[in-house]
Amino acid sequence: MEQLHDYNISDRQRQILSIIIEEYVSHARPVASEQIVSSYQLNVSSATVRNDMAELERAGLIVQPHTSAGRVPSERGYRYFVENLMRPKALPQDEQRKIRHQFHQVEMEADEWVRLAASILSRTVHSAALATAPRSTAVRLKHFELLAISDSRIMLVLVGHDGTVAQQMLHVDQDWSQEELSALANHLNAALSGKTSTEIEAWVNEPDNLQSILTIAPSVLVTLSTMLAKLERHETAEIYHEGLANILNQPEFRQPERMQQILDLFEHGHVWTSIIPSIIHRDGVQIIIGDEAMGESMRACSVVLARYGLGEHLAGVLGVVGPTRMPYSRSVSSVRYMSQLLSDLLQKSYNSPFSGQGETQSE
Amino acid sequence: MEQLHDYNISDRQRQILSIIIEEYVSHARPVASEQIVSSYQLNVSSATVRNDMAELERAGLIVQPHTSAGRVPSERGYRYFVENLMRPKALPQDEQRKIRHQFHQVEMEADEWVRLAASILSRTVHSAALATAPRSTAVRLKHFELLAISDSRIMLVLVGHDGTVAQQMLHVDQDWSQEELSALANHLNAALSGKTSTEIEAWVNEPDNLQSILTIAPSVLVTLSTMLAKLERHETAEIYHEGLANILNQPEFRQPERMQQILDLFEHGHVWTSIIPSIIHRDGVQIIIGDEAMGESMRACSVVLARYGLGEHLAGVLGVVGPTRMPYSRSVSSVRYMSQLLSDLLQKSYNSPFSGQGETQSE
DNA sequence: GGTTAGCACTCTGTGTGGTAGAGTGCTAGC
DNA sequence: GCTAGCACTCTACCACACAGAGTGCTAACC
Which of A150, A159, A352 is opposite residue B352, by nearest beta carbon? Predict the structure, then answer.
């Protein structure tokens, strides 16, 4: 789509677009032609810049809040920028050192790393940041329990080989005693420990395996397998977030509805459940601008996300959320560096055969 | 302390204080003497009211933002009001019915009830609301697992008899294989299943019990018992919250620092870990005004909290958080009703001997 | 003593021009 | 294709005034 505009946009116009974005991002004020020529070495006059800006506006890359104001990048302008113009440079050495220092200062658990990562990200980019704890993408059942809650309701609690846990209620049509349930759980634990969700499914279909055990076994097994599958897809991952105030203080979120949207995003988080599973299996930094992928709820918001982790075994997602007027280049560098750093830390720390830890609920 | 002022405050002055609070709460604007006599049947002139207001100000119960403005309640004024003047009346019948209706519409799990309770509270009081899932206050160990994470690091995952779970890392000075750990866990599970934290402590002190098992057993046991104890005290309870936007939109939280404080409160939640355990064992509705109990972090904020649940067995906390300018009477009625309602629902739903459910991580 | 009418006084909020200046688009010339 | 110059537009700000909201005080009244 951008290609359509590409051929009639000159190099200088691209440069001007970059400058407008850079200036607008840092000062949140429309950028004027004079401002551009006085701060940057363009070797043309402001009138020329004005002509170029008129063209950029025709291409839909910048807009003018009102006559006699400077220009502001449009969503399309940002998109063009991140795809064609931006060159994220690595984070400065001393900043990298400072960040690493914070991680090495105290010995921590994986989920504290993740929390720290979110906290550092939010501070380096001055936005909100989020991160999920590392989890295996191929969870094996370690153990599960069946607990009688009341007539016809059973709670299933599952522990994965990587320490992740999940709970779910089960409705059955008959009343079972805790003794019966424990016996069933013992029986099945012996048979299923170490299996993945697909292996459990397969096991269920073996004709011999379901004989002479309680009639609820099939539904228990289906639930088990579904729960494991959800854990693998990271659908139920808990999301740490930090620095909400950073973006709520931005001028664009002063209007109550905008604020409401952002808070929704972080209070209920169901928006993420569709995005995170898609990020977790992709390499590189993903940039979502405005409502591109999240519908109306994200107007005026951009997200920069990346996965981190050890290949197949253990992975999570981290990123920053900010206004569309966001320092994309810096965000990308920070997110990239942080994901690399977390991956390295995990690498060094988890060298056991199955490599895994979920979130720690109490510390 | 309030008693000092009590004797020289007349009935009418008390009435005027009530009116000022009521008006200020609903309109967020300083209340004038003329406004009081014209809207309420006081049978005195505004001049008299002014004299009374001067007295109330001397007593520290109201303040004047500037000369020639009306009066605004002080923190002390609110405190006096909730303790001596406020009569919370029950929630109107039709509102009660509407709320019950929402709970009965779908069959839900305990933690969804809790989420719904927070959501309804936040809407009825137009504030933020919070709630913790019901948990047993005397958790018994159902099962635990030891997972080898890396050299010298072990993860302990615990399942309570009520379905609560907790995880914690353990550092040991030697390398253990997963097989050794599983054997140890099996051995100890057989001995400890069904025990509370104090019973486990007692068991450890029996001289015979620790013979001929791995040397890490003592530290495992101590950790187990500590984790159970924390669960019992509800220190690690997950807090659902809802309606943050309701209070961030209030004029008093427009200043960035104030907003920051509120967001801190809900983003990290460590402030609550000291308050919730103290609420969980007390009956009735607790009101915290301004920074009375939470230090500077809560300036301009008030909290109305109550426990709910089934006596000793299963309990949680719920409440609302709003600006000090909060409809206390309505908040108290709503929180009281909601806690009663949740208790009833739990009563009907959890009739098994141990009555328990913790939060459900996946659904 | 408590109450009240009246009034002077204070402070805020709002409106009104008026103006400086920021920034543009356009034209004409280089 | 670039630029100097200029007319035009729109905003932001300031100064000023002024209406009105609300008070405290005083003096009189019951």
Answer: A150
- Residues pairing with B166 in the sheet: B158
Whether residue A275 contacts residue B290, with contact meaning beta carbons closer than 8 Å, is answered with no
Asked if B167 is an interface residue toward chain A (Cβ–Cβ < 8 A), one would say yes
CB-based contact, B162 to chain A, within 8 Å: yes
A313 touches chain B (CB under 8 A): no
Asked if B51 and B37 touch (Cβ cutoff 8 Å), the reply is no
The amino acid at A273 = T
- Residue A239 pairs in a beta bridge with A132
Report residue B127: phi and psi, to 5°: -135, -175
Per-residue model confidence as pLDDT tens for chain A (363 residues): 444 445 478 999 999 999 999 999 999 999 999 999 998 988 999 999 999 999 999 999 999 999 889 999 999 999 999 999 999 889 999 999 999 999 988 777 788 899 999 999 999 999 999 999 998 888 999 999 999 988 788 999 999 998 899 999 998 888 889 999 999 999 999 999 999 999 999 998 887 877 767 788 889 999 999 999 999 888 888 899 999 999 998 888 888 888 888 888 888 877 888 888 889 888 999 999 987 777 666 778 999 999 999 877 789 999 999 999 999 999 999 999 999 999 999 888 775 444 333 333 333
Quick check: B159 and A162 CB within 8 A?
no
| Chain A contact set for B245 (CB, 8 A) | 256, 259-260, 263-264
Smallest CA–CA distance from B128 into chain A, residue: A267
| Phi-psi group of B269: left, alpha or beta (phi > 0 → left; psi -120 to 50 → alpha; rest → beta) | left
Write out the DSSP string of B304-327: EEEEEEETTTEEEEEEEEEESS--
**pTM metric for this prediction:** 0.87
CB–CB of A305/A241 below 8 Å?
A: no
